[in-house]
Write a structure and sequence with these properties.
Blueprint lengths: L1 E5 L20 E2 L2 E2 H11 L4 E6 L3 H8 L8 E6 L6 H9 L6 E6 L2 E3 L16 E6 L23 E9 L13 H10 L3 E6 L3 E3 L3 H17 L1
InterPro entries: GlmU-like (IPR050065), MurU (IPR054790), NTP_transferase_dom (IPR005835), Nucleotide-diphossugar_trans (IPR029044)
Keywords: Nucleotidyltransferase, Transferase
Pfam family, one: NTP_transferase
Length: 223
């Protein structure tokens, strides 16, 4: 099983922190967000990674190299400077990924146990996504749980998922957003869902990054 970490976003809302640094390289507890993901995935037994690059991607490549420093193997999928959006980036990287693979947004911070994704059964063309309770910046959520009716409460997509590569079959290379694709595939009942009740943060603004680091410092003091 390989994992793809999405790191090609421009990070406009994180300015000025992302003026010369890709968003997933911003630090939480003294290390880049991507490094936290690699460590958690490695603990789960995943050691092969694909990282897509666009804005300031050379900073990521220079920091991680081939991954050997962390005991993993990293390959890179270079995109145009403006990126290809999430689905477009995954589609470009498909030749580097296996039949099934895990995808994680590089700009989130969570204690979700990614090893649980290894035990999910997906048939050809299917996907599984992890939802979380709605944060203040996304009060209306994104998707309902699969087993509930369409008018049930919506939850926020965590940016954590597992795909069968045929989920993207028939989509031409180029710029494609993942959200609309997931929504249409949910309606076709080929996307399974789970709701994670635990620590999860979308590092969307400098203020949220600062708040997260402050919270983690306080938690360390109490333990």
């Amino acid at each position: 099983m390989k994992a793809m970490i999405l790191a090609a976003g421009r990070g406009q809302r994180m300015m000025p922190l992302t003026a010369e640094l890709p968003k997933p390289m911003l630090k939480v507890q003294g290390k880049p967000l991507i490094e936290h993901h690699i460590e958690r995935l490695k603990t789960a037994g995943i050691t092969d990674f694909i990282i897509n690059l666009a804005w300031q991607g050379d900073k990521i490549r220079a920091y991680f190299g081939d991954g050997s420093r962390l005991g993993v193997h990293i390959e890179y999928s270079q995109e145009p400077e403006q990126g290809l959006e999430t689905a477009g980036g995954i589609i470009q990287a498909l030749p580097l990924l296996g039949e099934q693979f895990i995808v994680i947004n590089g700009d989130i911070f969570t204690d979700y146990d990614v090893s649980s994704l290894l035990h999910i059964h997906l048939d050809a063309g299917e996907a599984h996504i992890v939802l979380v309770e709605n944060p203040a910046h996304n009060p209306n959520g994104d998707f309902t749980l699969r087993h509930l009716s369409a008018d049930s409460p919506k939850y926020t997509f965590s940016g954590i998922s597992r795909f069968h590569q045929q989920f993207f079959a028939g989509i031409t290379a180029g710029t494609h957003r993942l959200g609309p694709l997931l929504k249409s595939k949910l309606a076709e009942h080929v996307v399974s869902t789970e709701l994670y009740i635990g620590n999860w943060d979308d590092i969307g603004t400098p203020e949220r990054l600062a708040q997260l680091n402050e919270l983690l410092i306080e938690q360390q003091k109490t333990h």
